[in-house]
Amino acid sequence: MALSRAASSPSRAALLKPLAAAISSSLFRRPISTDTTPITVETSVPFTAHRCEAPSRTVETTAEELVGFFRTMALMRRAEIAADSLYKAKLIRGFCHLYDGQEAVAIGMEAAITKKDCIITAYRDHCIYLGRGGTLLEVFAELMGRQAGCSKGKGGSMHFYKKDAGFYGGHGIVGAQIPLGIGLAFAQKYKKDESVSFALYGDGAANQGQLFEALNMAALWDLPAILVCENNHYGMGTAEWRAAKSPAYYKRGDYVPGLKVDGMDALAVKQACKFAKEHALKNGPIILEMDTYRYHGHSMSDPGSTYRTRDEISGVRQERDPIERIRKLVLSLDLATEKELKDIEKEVRKEVDDAIAQAKESPMPDPSELFTNVYVKGYGVESFGADRKEVRAVLP
Amino acid sequence: MATSAAQRFGRRLASSVPRRRFSSSAAAAAATGGSAVQRTQNPSLNLCSAINQALHIALDTDPRSYVFGEDVSFGGVFRCTVGLADRFGKGRVFNTPLCEQGIVGFGIGLAAMGNRAVAEIQFADYIFPAFDQIVNEAAKFRYRSGNQFNCGGLTIRAPYGAVGHGGHYHSQSPEAFFCHVPGIKVVIPRSPSQAKGLLLSCIRDPNPIVFFEPKWLYRLAVEEVPEHDYTLPLSEAEVIREGTDITLVGWGAQLSVMEEACLDAENDGISCELIDLKTLLPWDKETVEASVRKTGRLLLL
């Protein structure tokens, strides 16, 4: 557009050449944020299937999606690193389980589903919450226990929820969320609205009895449930081979079909989740095992290096980092320049810093909140003096 | 008053140093059978070291005793099981996968074969998947088999109690749930020397026992703990502070707070009698009753 305008005003002929040169280098290339021409990419490794046909390795995506992946994963990564610093500065107390390294699972899953589908996960939930549409302010405020947090500061790091986006949390007890997820799927089957539930759990939780109870129920009743094992190979400090006779978690469903996916490849995750959603709506439950990795320890009180070598961690970071993979893809397909990607990272950093500053302003919950939301209508506890007549009080 | 002064011998309040010391002299004297030799040179240990020592002794004295649970092999998340795997081998001190119901059920079976099974539940908050096994399997085994079988060798240890930053699932005090189950015992120590003696009693008691350890005191409580093998009687409450106006009954971490409250009350002229229940089920009715007959008032905290 600018080119034609420049050409039609002969008085500016002197400016035409450098202007044209500038324009051809920036405007003639596709604008990165809105291009939706399909691009096909191959996943890093083929899928391994159990009792089902593996989907194709070829994934359809677009420039918009890839750059979007980069941006959101960079945001998630930056948010988790910022949470690390806040924890060390004692602004976040209690427990904080960070997701950096596993972002591809959150982002790939979101790309394949809608907000009508439900997600339920364990305590490593910050990035899933962001993927479901949560804001950075809500994340940081909840982590710091402030009123502006998504759970009004009453849940903390492990208890993020977002009702309008079908995110059912955020659970502290290992494995307890899996039967809940199956219940969600049951309700969805009744609603007949073509939605599914994703119940996420880790390799540690894979040895919980309730997983198998839930699998049996889901399979018996053909529920649209997808169980996703985020296998980061360590259950707290225990390596998977020490805890499980069979670390092939995608096969552990036995009669339930399973798929093993490279969880560090966002496109593979997207393909698998799309496949799983179609499968679950037609045939009932399916297990997805995401082969992923966490750079941090289990939580902020775990250095993460006593049960694995630093070489292993840096090796994964170099070879399989999900953000680097997308960065290389975007650059090799010439969808954006290095500088543009770096600018995105800078923007993201600023967004995170702004959100933290805003979250710090938010006040702590009022002490009366200790007694609200226990039951539907207030706690209503009555307290009596010794004679049960003179002295009475009702707790708020 | 003279006796209470003696009871407070060697105890300093947590004012200058962030530590709580407990009435060690009474416990130590009882434990050693009144021998004067043991009064000096007992090393100071914190709660988790005392428990560690008890476990070492338990495994040493009975070759058919086992310690298992999540992460116990390297020493445990609170370091209570440090050194056990190295000393007694991975055949007797081993990790289980993440499955509380499985851990307790497995422990019941092991105990039913005549072994001493010391199962660790990593946090008392996680004991609920195992609740069915404890209430329905362990507690009723002896009764329903007409005394043919029992799982008396089972002791379940779990850190309990709030620490300030634990949140919903690292702070719970679920002892009350277990106090309504005939067939098991519930024991809670208040201090390192108590913990060592009580844990050894629990492990050797021929009944299944749930032993809650106040995690707040793991590092915070320090006192002299005798190094030898000693047990403290179960189902016997202890009057740790004598008084005349009101009887206070408590257990575990709460007692340290209550002791400070007693001192505050004394400044207001109220003389409090403080009782540590120690065993919550079956509890020592006689001691509490005798105290209430004396004071006429009872406060449970």
TrEMBL record, chain A:
Any one GO BP annotation for this protein: pyruvate decarboxylation to acetyl-CoA
Keywords, in A-Z order: Oxidoreductase, Pyruvate, Thiamine pyrophosphate
Superkingdom, natural source: Eukaryota
Any one Gene Ontology molecular-function term assigned to this protein's record: pyruvate dehydrogenase (acetyl-transferring) activity
UniProt source species: Eucalyptus grandis
Cofactor(s) this protein requires: thiamine diphosphate
Cited Pfam families: E1_dh
Function, in words: The pyruvate dehydrogenase complex catalyzes the overall conversion of pyruvate to acetyl-CoA and CO(2). It contains multiple copies of three enzymatic components: pyruvate dehydrogenase (E1), dihydrolipoamide acetyltransferase (E2) and lipoamide dehydrogenase (E3).
Protein name: Pyruvate dehydrogenase E1 component subunit alpha
Quaternary structure and interacting proteins, as annotated: Tetramer of 2 alpha and 2 beta subunits.
Origin organism lineage: Eukaryota, Viridiplantae, Streptophyta, Embryophyta, Tracheophyta
UniProtKB/TrEMBL annotation, chain B:
SMART domains documented for this protein: Transket_pyr (SM00861)
Pfam families with a match to the protein in the record: Transket_pyr (PF02779), Transketolase_C (PF02780)
SUPFAM superfamilies in the record: Thiamin diphosphate-binding fold (THDP-binding), TK C-terminal domain-like
InterPro entries per record: THDP-binding, Transketo_C/PFOR_II, Transketolase-like_Pyr-bd, Transketolase_C
Keyword terms of this UniProt record: Oxidoreductase
Reaction(s) catalysed by this chain's protein: N(6)-[(R)-lipoyl]-L-lysyl-[protein] + 3-methyl-2-oxobutanoate + H(+) = N(6)-[(R)-S(8)-2-methylpropanoyldihydrolipoyl]-L-lysyl-[protein] + CO2
EC number(s) on file: 1.2.4.4
Cofactor(s), names only, from the UniProt record: thiamine diphosphate
Residue ranges of domain Transketolase-like pyrimidine-binding in the record: 45-220
GO MF, one example: branched-chain 2-oxo acid dehydrogenase activity
Highest rank taxon of the organism: Eukaryota
PANTHER family reported for this sequence: 2-OXOISOVALERATE DEHYDROGENASE SUBUNIT BETA, MITOCHONDRIAL, 2-OXOISOVALERATE DEHYDROGENASE SUBUNIT BETA-RELATED
Name under which the protein is recorded: 3-methyl-2-oxobutanoate dehydrogenase (2-methylpropanoyl-transferring)
Organism from which the protein derives: Eucalyptus grandis (Flooded gum)
